[in-house]
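Methods — Computational structure assignment.
A single polypeptide chain was analysed. Its primary sequence is given first, followed by the predicted tertiary structure written as structure tokens.
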Amino acid sequence: MDKKVLYIISAVTVIIVVALGYAYYMNMPETPDDNDAISTPASPDTTDNKEIESEEPAQTSAIPGEYRDYSEEAVLATSGEKLLFFHAPWCPQCRSVETSIEQNGLPDDVTVFKVDYDTNQDLRQRYGVTIQTTFVLVDDSGNKIDSYVAYDEPNFASVERELLQ
């Protein structure tokens, strides 16, 4: 083949690769803003308008599960179970876990804090995190209780099974 044909084939290949990359990027799920929070979907009303025998309203002490961006202040101010999710936007497993959380919600009294894996090296070192998709269960003071890597089973059900028994 002559050089002109090779240049044309190379140019077409580059254009195709760029177009596929752009299409992939445009179809990536959006991430919530810093101030957005995703709450667990509310359960449907199952009373069917039947008369309630008790005059006292049912009291719920459960706080709906929440998925939000990490800040040290938010962790300290939040009650219930707290999980730090070391997430990387380029990681397919991380996106799968995030989709699982967004579609299925979180259990009551559980807050998952999304920590950017790439920009939080100090937190990674503090909690001994060496791979994205790591969840760290912390106490009210932010001290590590336990951790789990959801890389091989990238969904929140595996995290719940391993850390929230």
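Note: The domain at 64-163 is CATH 3.40.30.10 (Glutaredoxin).
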